[in-house]
Predict the 3D structure of the following.
Amino acid sequence: MADLLGVISLNWPAAICLLAGFALVTVEVFLPGFGAPGITGLALLLAGIVVAADSLLEAVWLLIIVIALVCLLLFVVLRSALKGKLAQSPLVLQSALSKDAGFSSAQDFSRFLGREGLALTPLRPAGSAGFEEGRLDVVTEGEFIAKGQKVLVAKVEGARIVVRGA
């Protein structure tokens, strides 16, 4: 094969190793994790460099060229995934799970605000209280509440339900 940049001469086995390596590294971009295609692609790229290089200087030049091409390849693929045709493909998630659409990562306990319940365990300051809907883990504002006393939900902070004696 002809001289590459007038420095490195590639033969067919080296060219096949390099092309297959670039292809497998590209496949790895679309697969989750660091798996077989990525490792095999990197191994083929290194094998292509070793087969093509006649000296250490040629190996260094080819390594620099391969690194630059892999960076360029990743830039083009990732840019296409964000803005190009890949952005409309099923590989890229199009929707987001937002609170406005009714999605939440935690249960909403704000409906218990102002409700009365019964302490099922001593609250010092954490324990359980029973409400019409069932048993909930609650905390007090620092006070001790004995088992069987009525409690009132004072505030709700995410999944943390704060009660005080009623």
Observations:
- The first strand starts at residue 3 and ends at 4.
